[in-house]
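2024-03-11 09:14:02 INFO worker-7 job=invfold-0412 stage=load source=structure_tokens
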């Protein structure tokens, strides 16, 4: 008999959800999935009783006592981007928004293990804030300039010979190398500060931290941003990688400092042996790394959810 209940929130067909679901099915846990696309058939009703959140989650013809969930894996997409929202009337849109807000609020206060609470993921909205935490625990960060001053960018480029630029926020951006043609567009940054960093030679390592477990993946690529190298006609290869205990501990400590049960930390191992940290992803798309290396990240995550 399966006595532990785990709630998965998001889009079931998305591989990070589907892979951890398959891994959980091999454990003693009962898996419940909240499919955001079925929001019209879902309700949540909860309140505090003697300081404890109590209530039920209703989906289709089933109901679940919220206190029965041992853990939750939260991988929501914005409800505004759900295909089912297209063409809906304002009443339906408002109901969808209220459902998600109530779920998010419950996730913040439940006694269940939540991977990850939304309030703890906000650090990704500010790369400068993350950089302060990263350096506090012994990891280096690349020489960085955040500015809306074109002259400062040109001086930074001259000092470091080769630089890249990317978003300061948590919104995904494609990392690009600064080249002479970008000089013509520099005046545009007056209206939106941009993050520039020295381009470091070496190879990338993605470190997934789950609790105190660490899984590292080496990335060799011909592109500036390995995620998009193939799109640009380049190549990217991934393989399991062993990192030192010192780097492991630093990654675990950074993730813990950001209050993340599960994180994806992006490192660069330079040609001269230094290790730099770019950022910490609070909702890592781990399935890309698992599919390309065979590393059982989903099983480690499932084990953490039922522990």
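2024-03-11 09:14:09 INFO worker-7 stage=emit residues=307
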């Amino acid at each position: 008999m399966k006595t532990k209940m785990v709630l998965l929130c998001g889009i079931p067909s998305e591989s990070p959800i589907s892979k951890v679901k398959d891994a959980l099915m091999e454990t003693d846990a009962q898996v419940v999935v909240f499919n955001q696309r079925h929001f019209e058939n879902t309700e949540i009703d909860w309140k505090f009783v003697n300081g404890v959140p109590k209530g039920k989650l209703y989906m289709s013809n089933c109901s679940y006592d919220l206190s029965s969930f041992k853990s939750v894996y939260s991988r929501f997409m914005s409800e505004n981007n759900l295909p089912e929202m297209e063409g809906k009337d304002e009443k339906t849109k408002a109901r969808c928004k209220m459902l998600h807000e109530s779920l998010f609020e419950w996730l913040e206060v439940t006694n269940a293990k939540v991977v990850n609470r939304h309030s703890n993921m906000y650090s990704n909205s500010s790369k400068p804030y993350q950089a302060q935490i990263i350096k506090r625990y012994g990891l280096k960060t690349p020489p960085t300039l955040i500015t809306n001053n074109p002259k400062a960018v040109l001086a930074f480029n001259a000092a470091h010979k080769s630089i890249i630029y990317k978003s300061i926020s948590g919104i995904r951006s494609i990392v690009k190398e600064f080249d002479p043609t970008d000089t013509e567009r520099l005046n545009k940054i007056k209206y939106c500060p941009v993050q520039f960093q020295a381009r470091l030679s070496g190879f990338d390592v993605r470190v997934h931290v789950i609790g105190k477990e660490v899984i590292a993946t080496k990335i060799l690529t011909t592109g500036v941003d390995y995620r998009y190298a193939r799109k640009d006609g380049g190549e990217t290869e991934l393989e399991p990688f062993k990192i030192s205990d010192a780097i492991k501990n630093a990654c675990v400590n950074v993730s813990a400092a950001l209050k993340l049960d599960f994180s994806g930390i992006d490192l660069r191992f330079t040609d001269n042996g230094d290790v730099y940290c770019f950022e910490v992803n609070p909702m890592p798309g781990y399935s890309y790394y698992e599919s390309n290396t065979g590393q059982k990240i989903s099983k480690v995550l499932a084990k953490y959810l039922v522990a």
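2024-03-11 09:14:09 INFO worker-7 stage=report msg="Residues 144-198 form a domain with the Dna Ligase; domain 1 fold (CATH 3.30.1490)."
2024-03-11 09:14:10 INFO worker-7 job finished
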